[in-house]
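To: structure desk
From: M.T.
Subject: fold request, one chain
Message: Could you run this one when you get a chance? Sequence is below, nothing fancy, just the single chain.
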Amino acid sequence: MADTKDERGSSPATGRQDRAARVAAMQRAERARARRRRVALIAVPTVLVLGAGAGVAGVIAAQPDPPSLDAVRTFEYTAGAHTPDPVQYAENPPAGGEHDPVWLNCGIYDEPVRSENAVHSMEHGAVWITYRPDLPAEQVELLREAVEDREYALLSPYDGLPSPIVLSAWNKQLSVEDAGDRRIGAFLSEFVNGPQTPEPGALCTNGVGTPTG
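Reply: Done. Structure tokens follow.
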């Protein structure tokens, strides 16, 4: 952000230390979550191989290749541009740019949210998952499961999307057709407080909005 004052009201040095500690804790949590997902995906069949008068038992672990994020679009928005006015964004939904001085509280929303506040949350490291309002309920439930345990994630319906589901982080965006797409989890793991984040670890609470989950 362009302001030099820490948004949490603490001194700059203390704010940087607190933020560094929060980012480190979130990175550890993300690594642990990724390990749990890998374990859940591993199939372990036991194969018995018989030789000449001898038997050999082997355990083969088959793990699927990680999904490719080559389809992620990259943008070049500069952070810190605040305005209380409505913004006409080039992308739908936005992937960065001018935004409201107050961020949107991270969480799950059942109604559309104001883009200008959500973009500020993205500047703080959040991934914003948007979906068409007519997305089937079972698809929405899969999206809720993907974000419900993440501190820096937003989920909301959004009118006029170019695809059924769009994932946005600051300067990053991915469109998918189905909530079961494995790239959703990969996008969250890569870009929640990822290297593209202008202010990693800044607050995603104490802003505006009341999530339902």
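Reply (cont.): The helical segments are 12-41, 115-123, 137-147, 183-191. Let me know if you need anything else for the meeting.
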